[in-house]
Structures are given as structure tokens and as C-alpha cells.
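ingest -> validate -> predict -> emit
validate: passed (alphabet ok, no gaps, 197 aa)
predict: started
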Amino acid sequence: MGQRAVRDGEEPLRRLHRADDLGGVLALSKPSKLYLQGTEVKEDFLTLRSSPPAVLAALRLYKLTAKEAPLNCENDAALRMLWSALVQLREKCQPYIVEFRYTWKLLNLMGIAPSLDLCAECGERLTDGGRFTQEGMRCRRCSQDRGEPVSAQELAELKGAVSLPHDKFILWSRETREKDCYIKNLKKLSPYFSNMR
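emit:
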């Protein structure tokens, strides 16, 4: 893509990535959105085409990022997370685990991710599982049977998905994982974005 002149009301942003990461990225900002002006792509994700679930997951991640990442969000970190998720999909990680991981990490970057370690009300460690509520994960005592139950085993799975470093996550996610655990808990994260509007 060729570069164009900056129009009134737009402010040029700094380069969002070093040239050895994703490629050079130049973006412009308007009060209501951030969009790319030009890019020089150095990664090839065409191999995702061999897996329709991976392609669909990648499209959902792009859409989520474009729709939900606020302008004051740290763009370098968001782009690195997106690149990392695409690499994970390319490396044949299960798409539903990558989507959960990416969504939680985007919420975390925005400062609104529910803790998977501590009760949102009393601050106690969630050792026996808990309940997902609109306010976050609560221990069984504080939840008073409100919210969706999350077992200790399920919570340990989710913590593994979001806390492992990139390379270890790729190896870990190739093991057999319970698909329903990630799909149902991914749905529980969606309202956190709408709470920001």
C-alpha cells in the first residue's frame, strides 16, 4: 500500500512495531478509530487456509480487535498479542483455546479482565473453583449461588491457557483439552467488552 497525506483531523502515530516483528506498520488516528495507513508484512499466515476453523478464529480475532480495542489501549502490545495468536493458530493450536486466551489477554490489556486467581469480592484465592458473575469470578461463599459455576479443574485449565508463555502454550495446547470448557467461558468474557461502552 502506498502512503497518503494526512488529512485534517488525523494525527500520525508512531511506528507501532519494529521492522523485525510484524513488519513496519504506520497508522493514523481519528477521534473515533485507529486504522492502518500502510504496512509491510513479513509473516505469512497463508497456511491457515488449510484449516477452516483456524481461518474463522483468525477473522474473529481481527474483528474483536478492530471493534473493541480502545484508542488509549497500548497498540504495540495489542498487535503483538494478535500476531502471537496467529502464530499459535498456524502452529495448529486449538482455535477455541487461542480465542479464549486472546480475548482474556485483550481484556487484561484494557484493565478489565476478570481475575482467575482471586475472588472479585473478598480477594481470597480461588482454590475450589468459583462462579463467573458480571463483577468477575467469585468464590463460592461470596457468589451466593449467583453466576455460572466453574469447577477447580476448569479454572486450572483456564489459568493455564492465559498464563503460559507463548512457546509453552503452543506445546500445552496440543494436548487433549476439553473444548466445551473454553467455548462456554469465552461467551462469559463477551459482556466485559459491552460493560466498557
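The first helix runs from residue 52 to 68.
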